[in-house]
Write a structure and sequence with these properties.
Blueprint lengths: L3 E11 L3 H12 L4 E5 L5 H6 L1 H17 L15 H11 L6 H9 L3 E4 L1 E4 L4 E5 L5 E12 L3 E3 L7 H4 L4 H6 L6 E5 L3 H12 L3 E5 L11 H13 L3 E3 L4 E6 L5 E5 L4 E4 L1 E4 L3 E3 L33 E3 L10 H19 L16 H4 L3 E3 L4 E6 L2 H6 L4 E7 L4 H6 L6 E7 L5 E8 L6 H9 L4 H4 L12 H11 L1
Parallel strand pairs: 1-2, 1-6, 2-3, 6-16, 8-9, 8-14, 9-10
Antiparallel strand pairs: 4-5, 5-6, 7-15, 11-12, 12-13, 17-18, 18-21, 19-20, 20-21
Helix pairs in contact: 1-10, 3-4, 3-8
Length: 479
């Protein structure tokens, strides 16, 4: 017979992904007893179906792309990738989809882990339906943090229930390359998975509703990625959408496009956005709508619920859908919860300890394609729409000695936006092999609001790709 018991903690966290783990780590460090609830694997989407497996698939592809252009290495790396070895590496990086290591860390941090489906049951109360069918009721003295993340959003397409499409989960965990893979979506998941599976032997067709790839970034980013995907053999099509798709008895997928063309594929991946994991977590018991995103203020407090006890951290609040940004929010939320538990006022001024200002002004991101794309802060289009007066400064990275050492045929581009009045960097985009490692310097420049006049004294080593900073400053000065 199912049983019911009640436990009381200072803080309850729903969701044991990287975000929930970081909230719990911060509250425990502040001396608050904390329970964390997880219905799947501790470690969350990033560890098993997103960041870790996708980058494990991409690393061999990107390394080979660089090596094939380096004299002395190129003949040795022209053979196809060892698919079995790449997938085995992906499995290891995903911990073989077992969460023993994560569970061990949670316990070592002094956090109580409850397996099961967590639901809000009113103010500061959560019920957990365990795998055994029991119900555990939890009460929080101070806070409940919803860290349930997001899931792939599928389009409203007739027959999609019987289509058995891939989402990002299937794309990162597949056990063999499909011979023909159709990918729907021009964003990060679409272009990264096109890069990975094309390199692993699939014939990839990438379908973009927009007129270019990576539409939220600087246009040159999508242009350079498109060029390289096509060189690698991918069929990249723009201004087209899927109007019908069905899986045949033989397993093939027949796809009808908005331009009247038809495709046949072995698998179809929809990389068409994200939706919040909030449809069955009891939002209705606190006056919220199940299935909605949970808007918060900069302290990560849910604004529609009175009492300053409910927090939404990570993807579920839709502020910035990146694992690293969710972990940043978790550190802020943990500090806020601890301060309020001690009866202290919180400081939510810009860049203050209890304000997630970076969500609005300095969100870094890397797209692990060939070439890589790294960006933080505003794009030129965003600055214009916001009415920000900026100087747009561009430089061809391939002109650098360090870039030519990295890859003799290096192609890439850098752009920074400099506020005309304040002379500080407010946006940066780098496209080219290896540029992901340039991103932290740009993030520091933006969050630290370092005056351009001071950046002149930050000397880049020669010959490195980081010398692009000097060239950008020279271009700005001379213009």
């Amino acid at each position: 017979m199912p049983t019911e018991n009640i436990r009381t903690y200072d803080v309850i966290v729903i969701g044991a992904g990287p975000v929930g783990e970081n909230v719990a780590d911060r509250t425990v460090a502040a001396g608050l007893s904390t329970a964390i609830v997880e219905s799947e694997l501790a470690g969350g989407e990033c560890s098993y179906w997103a960041c870790e497996p996708s980058k494990a698939l991409l690393r061999p592809a990107l390394l080979r792309a660089d090596a094939t252009h380096v004299p002395g290495l190129d003949p040795a790396v022209k053979n196809p990738l060892d698919v079995e070895a790449v997938l085995a590496h992906r499995d290891r990086m995903s911990a073989d989809w077992k969460d023993d290591g994560q569970v061990e860390w949670i316990k070592s941090a002094g956090i109580d882990l409850l397996r099961g489906h967590g639901r809000l049951e009113g103010v500061r109360e959560v019920s957990v339906r365990t795998p055994d069918g029991d119900t555990v009721r939890l009460r929080a003295r101070h806070a409940v943090a919803v860290c349930t993340g997001s899931r792939a959003a599928l389009p409203d397409l007739p027959g999609i229930d019987t289509l058995r499409p891939w989402t990002s989960r299937e794309a990162t965990s597949a056990q063999r390359p499909p011979e023909r893979l159709a990918i729907v979506g021009a964003g990060v998941v679409g272009v990264e998975m096109a890069t990975a599976w094309q390199a692993l032997g699939s014939r990839v067709t990438l379908l973009a509703r927009e007129d270019g790839l990576l539409p939220r970034m600087e246009p040159f980013a999508g242009e350079l990625v498109t060029e390289r995907l096509r060189e690698a053999g991918a069929d990249v099509r723009f201004d087209v959408s899927v109007v019908a798709a069905r899986r045949q008895g033989d397993g093939e997928v027949r796809i009808t496009l908005s331009d009247g063309d038809e495709l046949t594929a072995d698998e179809i991946l929809f990389a068409t956005g994200r939706a919040p994991r909030s449809e069955d977590i009891g939002l209705g018991t606190v006056g919220l709508t199940p299935g909605d995103w949970l808007p918060t203020d900069d302290s990560l407090t849910v604004t529609a619920v009175p009492g300053n006890w409910l927090y939404a951290v990570g993807d579920v609040n839709r502020r910035a859908l990146f694992t690293h940004q969710g972990k940043y929010q978790a550190r802020i939320a943990g500090a806020v919860i601890a301060a309020r538990a001690r009866g202290e006022d919180i400081d939510t001024a810009r860049w203050a300890p209890h304000s997630s200002t970076a969500d609005l002004e300095a969100v870094p991101g890397v797209v692990f394609t060939d070439p890589e794309v790294a960006s933080v802060g505003l794009t030129a289009d965003q600055a214009e729409r916001a009415g920000r007066a900026v100087d747009v400064v561009d430089y061809e990275i391939g002109h650098l000695a360090g870039a030519l050492q990295y890859r003799p045929d290096y192609r890439g581009r850098a752009r920074v936006l400099i506020d005309r009045d304040r002379h500080v960097v407010v946006g940066a985009t780098f496209v080219g092999p290896g540029v992901g490692e340039l991103l932290y310097s740009a993030t520091v420049a933006i969050t630290g609001e370092v005056p351009v006049e001071r950046l002149w004294h930050a000397v880049p080593a020669f010959p490195t790709i980081s010398e692009v900073w000097l060239r950008l400053l020279e271009t700005w000065r001379d213009s």
